[in-house]
Amino acid sequence: MLPVLVANLSRMLDLSSRKLRRSNGNHFFFHGPWFLGMSIFVTANPVDARHLFIDNFQNYPKGKDFYEIFELGGDGIFIADGDTWKYHRVKAQMLMSNTRFRVFVAQLSRQKIENALHPFLVHASSQNKIIDIQDMFLRLSFDMSTNFIAGVDLGILSRDLSENPIARAIDEVAAALFFRFVMPRPWWKLLRALSVGHEKRMVTGGRVLDRFVAEVIEERRREIIEGRDAPPSMLRSYMEETEVQESYKFLRETIINFLFAARDTTSAAMTWFLWAMCRYPHVEEKIIDELNSISKSITSDGLAVFEAEQLEKLIYFHASILESLRLHPSTPLNIRSVLKPDTLPTGVKLTPGMKVVASMYAMGRMKTIWGDDCLEFKPERWISKEGELKYEPSYKFLPFHTGPRSCLGKQIALTQIKMVIAAMVYNFSFEIVEGHVPEPKFSFILHMKNGLMVRVKKR
Ligand code: HEM
């Protein structure tokens, strides 16, 4: 069974979605070889999701295996369970729901659009260059995230697209984490003991990240001691609180967990959305019409930039982003452990030691949830007859997860996606290079396997 699984990894999302669509109850069990004791319950059923993530959420923690796989992130919000998780969650929630913080993130996004994104696209357009827009979004999203999380701008999105050691370390660590996730535990443990392959890169990448984190914490500490002004950031705000001032461990875990939570998710969402704009020009046209109805400022380059609060008014644009996330959720799978024996409302019995996987990718493609046209890209499905946004329960639409562990960065991510995409499609047109077929890649994040190669033209 396992060699078949490994050989089909790249097609795993589509294969499992097909199986989920055909299975009674839209769920199934996957049993690995007996000697691994692997028993996984895979579901795309909203009734299961509601029970697992909301009603009996305490029984489905991330678990010990998850903790071991993601050891680099320590006890951070993304990894921890119980009281440690709650502590991180309460602190982060307070900061991220603060209006001043949200306004600051929007201002920062605007600066990045004007100073990095627009110059990059103007240059690419004037040179008639083919660009990998996935790589561009990863760079932009990394710059934006390090800025609001740690207060540093690494300037990774630049004209020359030079390689950055910190971004490379994150990529290598993420690939190694995924390798651990899909390989039997004894296998990756052996590679770790031998310090070879992904495991070796995990160690070297981890060191680069730790050095980066140590430097930014030291820099913020000096700013505070010397009474220097600095733009607000998560790190600075935490360090100004006496309670956590000295806890290096807490600050380190916050930076690492938030970098992993924010960078790839947001950039993957932007990449699939831009792909949708190229693939469905009638949707793009409607979005541009909507953008024409709100106020904008014109930069010295003669390019339009939109403010977050203006973009909030646009229903069709918002609906299109939800539609893109429905078909291409940034995190395609969500994994949990089983603490105590439990019976789901659908009658399935789960026992401790099993793993539970909810496929957001499959859920977005279920006729039982979205109707016969579930595979079509139709922003209209999110809009009522009265022209308002339709409410869909979060356990049915899981790209930002649901329940007590739902995404804390949802509003920030939506703001960034809207500001960036508006500044792109209003000023530039994009065309996918002929013969380039974007394909989902099977990993924690729904990246495109071969990037998204496009030509860009100034409108
Ligand atoms: C389009 C962009 C994003 C998507 C689709 C997304 C999606 C998700 C999902 C599915 C989870 C649940 C993961 C799990 O339980 O295993 C999650 C958790 C989380 N997200 Fe996001 N996210 C996005 C952007 C962001 C950003 C920009 C931030 C930070 C500013 C962020 C911060 C977090 C945090 C801290 C958690 C952990 C919550 C907890 O466990 O209590 N996310 N996100």
Automatic annotation (TrEMBL):
Pfam name, any one: p450
Binding-site residues for heme, renumbered to this chain: 407
Superkingdom of origin organism: Eukaryota
Keywords from the UniProt entry: Heme, Iron, Metal-binding, Monooxygenase, Oxidoreductase
Cofactors demanded by this protein: heme
Family matches, as InterPro entries: Cyt_P450 (IPR001128), Cyt_P450_CS (IPR017972), Cyt_P450_E_grp-I (IPR002401), Cyt_P450_sf (IPR036396)
GO biological process: lipid metabolic process
MF annotations from Gene Ontology: heme binding; iron ion binding; monooxygenase activity; oxidoreductase activity, acting on paired donors, with incorporation or reduction of molecular oxygen
Family affiliation: Belongs to the cytochrome P450 family.
Protein name: Cytochrome P450
The organism of origin for this protein: Rhynchospora pubera
